[in-house]
Design a protein that fits this description.
two-stranded antiparallel ribbon, about 120 residues, 2 helices, alpha+beta, single chain
Length: about 120
């Protein structure tokens, strides 16, 4: 019995000849490197016809989660996170103490009228 290989083993039906290079149109693209503060490099590919102003200056590094920029020597620093604010803190930013007192009095008056007090 002859030992021959099966020429189609491991290929898809209709895949064409092995090593066929023209499986569709490949757009021209440019590689942009981004570095985070830990020195990790991430490469993103963009279409060559994309205007430079549409390519982001910074991305989030998939390696560390830190911001990554295009300047290897000066990667972006982590922005200082703002402390958590409660709903009351946001309300106090928008209202003065006098406005708060007035609104509270109006609400209490309406509540008393509904309850018949």
């Amino acid at each position: 019995m002859a030992t021959g290989g099966n020429a189609i083993r491991g290929t898809r039906v209709g895949a064409g000849p092995m090593g066929e290079q023209d499986h569709g149109f490949h757009a021209e693209r440019v590689a942009i490197s981004y570095w985070d503060a830990l020195g990790n490099e991430t490469v993103r590919y963009f279409a060559a016809n994309v205007p430079a102003e549409e390519i982001p200056e910074t991305i989030d590094s998939p390696h560390s989660g830190l911001p990554a920029g295009q300047d290897k020597d000066n990667p972006p620093m982590v922005a200082k996170p703002e402390p958590y604010k409660t709903h009351l803190a946001y309300v106090k930013e928008r209202r003065s103490d006098e406005e708060a007192t007035s609104l509270l009095e109006d609400a209490l008056t309406q509540l008393r009228e509904r309850r018949g007090l």
